[in-house]
Every structure is written in structure tokens, then in C-alpha cells.
Specification:
With 348 residues, the chain is an alpha/beta fold. It has helices at residues 14-29, 42-49, 62-82, 148-152, 162-169, 214-226, 249-258, 267-275, 287-295, 310-317, 323-346; strands spanning 2-6, 33-37, 88-89, 99-102, 128-133, 157-159, 204-208, 230-234, 243-245, 261-264, 279-282.
Length: 348
């Protein structure tokens, strides 16, 4: 079958890319031809990374604006090179598709205005299913801005988290919870050789986060200094780190594999810490991260902002994880999710 995917593989973080890359791989392994349907204009995507004209208070800080814009431009260039692994069609009508899969990722998080667009709900497409789709941190009442008829056209809907399944239940839609595509594919597809001078130095703690409060960054540094570790960040640059690794999404797994410890506040940072059997803690920014860790009996890896001090980091990061038990649970979750995905496709 020729399958079109509607997702956000072109966002400016590793997780969005990697979930799309994994779903593409899984579908291709099943024998399907896979393309991605463009969901946002090229101009919109460029503005995610950098913009040419300052806005607001940026006019008063031209040097800082230029530095951030240059860093954003370099990041945009790296991401654009990586995106060549995806075949993108400009519209559903241009694809001659047999079916469409919506997801994964938070493409139904209506608190982000772009995700109110009908394209993310398969409007005008037929037949349509959804895999590992999520409403993110949108509340059930927020979803009233989307016509409920959109959801009833999608069959099946496989949710990525319990919160999304609960919302769909209010519409009398049964939505089994499945794992993120990055947990469906074998880990080897994410790994490639990556060389960087920063990786040749002393052992390090890796930070993967969109941003952290100053108190938490101080706690991370205190833990690192106590263990003679450097603090390195990937994808997002922070001045309080000892170095920032400029890399692509497909370099991330190799970097994470070399880390002694990982501190993350993202869902996919948590997933890849687990896949690489790392000692890690996760500061959850959404329910989906807590759901995942609870389902794998790894709730001890969760850390709350108010408790994040060097002492608690010491306790949690140095607590060994029984990864043989985790892999058993992942194996069951992976099999159930693959079966549901295959069954959803075969019904079309």
C-alpha cells in the first residue's frame, strides 16, 4: 500500500523527527510505500528556527538577536539536510494514496494554534487511521474547538497516552493506548557514528531539554562537580553547560550512548535514555512522560521541579535500573502496539 503520514517530522527538536523516522521504517519493513503530507509552509518552518527581522524587545538587543539567529540558521541547515530521508508531497491530492495515518506526536494539542488545522484530523482524506496520536497538555474542554465529527471519521484511533484516550472516551470512541513509534523500531536504526571533540574529553552528564530554571541548572552542576563530570547539552544550547553539541537527530543516539548520566525534561529524551539503558532522571513537562514511566515501573526516575536538588539527583541518578525487567515490559508493549497497527492498516 502507499501510505501518507500526517505529522510534524520537520519541527526543531529531535523527538518529532525520530518518531516520524521510526514510523516510516516500521511501515517500510511491513512492505508499504511511505510518503509524508506537508502540513505547514516552508516559510512557517523556517521561522521556527530563525527570523530575519527582530520583533519586540529584540530591537533593543541587536547583538543577542544576531547570535541567536545565527545559531538558529545553523540548526535549520542541519535539520534540512536530515529531512531528506523523508519523501514529502505537497498535498493529499498529489499522492494517489491508499490510506493516511495521522500521527504520532501532539498533532491534536489545540493549545498550539497550528494544530487546529483540519489537515491534522484527516479532513478530506479517505481512509484515515491514527497511530500514537496525542492531545498533549490540552484539557478535554479545550478540544471543543474541533468538530467531533472529525474524530468519528478516523478508524481506528490508537492513542499515545491515557489522557488522549480519556478525551476520546467522552466522544464514545474506544482508543487503545499504544507505544510511541520510537519504541516500535529496533534501536539500531537510530544509531550512526558521530565524532565531536567534546566527546573525547572527560566523562559527562548529558542534558536534553528545551530549557530549565536556574535553580535546577545549579543542582545539575553541583551533582556533576561532585562526580567529576562535565555537563554537555544536545540540540539546545545553554550557557551554563560546559559544551553544546551541534548535531542532528540521527547523531543523538550515539551521543546519549556515551553519556554517564542523562537529565531530560522531554518525552523522547526519556525514551532514548531507556532504549540506551542509561542512568537518568526525567523532569516531566506533560502527562505522557509520567504515563510511560509508570507503565514501565520506572516512576522512581521522575523528578519534580520543587525537589530537584543535588541530594535528590544523587539519590535518583545513582539508583541502578533493572533494565532486564524494563525490556520484558517493553517487549509486550511493542508486540501489542505492532498488532494494533497492522490490524488498523489491514482493515482499509
Amino acid at each position: 500500500m502507499k501510505i501518507g503520514i500526517v505529522t510534524v517530522q520537520d519541527s526543531n527538536n529531535f523527538g518529532s523527527f525520530l518518531q516520524a523516522y521510526a514510523l516510516q521504517h516500521v511501515l517500510q519493513e511491513m512492505g508499504h510505500d511511505v510518503v509524508f503530507i506537508r502540513t505547514r509552509s516552508k516559510q512557517y518552518l523556517r521561522r521556527i528556527f530563525f527570523h530575519i527581522i527582530p520583533s519586540g524587545r529584540e530591537w533593543f538587543h541587536p547583538v543577542g538577536f544576531l547570535k541567536r539567529n545565527y545559531a538558529g540558521w545553523k540548526k535549520y541547515y542541519r535539520f534540512q539536510k536530515e529531512l531528506r530521508v523523508f519523501r514529502v508531497i505537497e498535498s493529499y491530492d498529489a499522492g494517489h494514496l491508499d490510506m493516511v495515518i495521522l500521527g504520532s506526536d501532539e498533532i491534536w494539542n489545540v493549545r498550539t494554534p497550528v494544530f487546529r488545522s483540519p489537515i491534522f484530523y484527516g479532513v478530506g482524506m479517505e481512509p484515515v487511521m491514527a497511530y500514537a496520536v496525542s492531545i498533549g497538555n490540552a484539557e478535554i474542554q479545550d478540544m471543543s474547538c474541533i468538530d467531533s465529527a472529525y474524530f468519528h471519521r478516523i478508524d481506528p484511533i490508537l492513542a499515545r497516552d491515557a489522557h488522549t484516550a480519556d478525551f476520546l472516551h467522552t466522544l464514545q470512541i474506544n482508543a487503545p493506548v499504544v507505544c510511541d513509534p520510537t519504541l516500535l523500531a529496533e534501536k539500531a536504526i537510530f544509531k550512526r557514528e558521530f565524532h565531536h571533540p567534546l566527546l573525547d574529553g572527560e566523562p559527562f552528564l548529558l542534558v536534553y531539554s528545551y530549557g530549565l530554571p536556574p535553580e535546577i541548572s545549579k543542582s545539575i552542576r553541583a551533582f556533576a562537580e561532585a562526580h567529576n563530570l562535565r555537563v554537555l547539552s544536545a540540540c539546545f544550547s545553554f550557557p551554563w553547560c560546559d559544551g553544546n553539541l551541534e548535531c542532528t537527530a540521527l547523531d543523538f543516539c550515539s551521543i546519549l550512548e556515551k553519556a554517564e548520566y542523562v537529565f531530560t525534561s522531554t518525552y523522547h529524551g526519556t525514551i532514548f535514555s531507556i532504549l540506551n539503558h542509561k542512568q537518568f532522571v526525567s523532569l516531566p513537562q506533560s502527562r505522557k512522560t509520567s504515563d510511560l514511566l509508570n507503565s514501565l515501573q520506572l516512576s522512581s526516575r521522575l523528578i519534580a521541579e520543587q525537589e530537584c536538588c543535588a541530594t535528590v539527583l544523587e539519590e535518583k541518578l545513582c539508583m541502578e535500573i533493572n533494565y532486564s525487567q524494563v525490556e520484558e515490559k517493553l517487549s509486550c508493549l511493542r508486540k501489542q502496539s505492532l498488532d494494533l497497527l497492522r490490524n488498523g492498516i489491514s482493515r482499509k
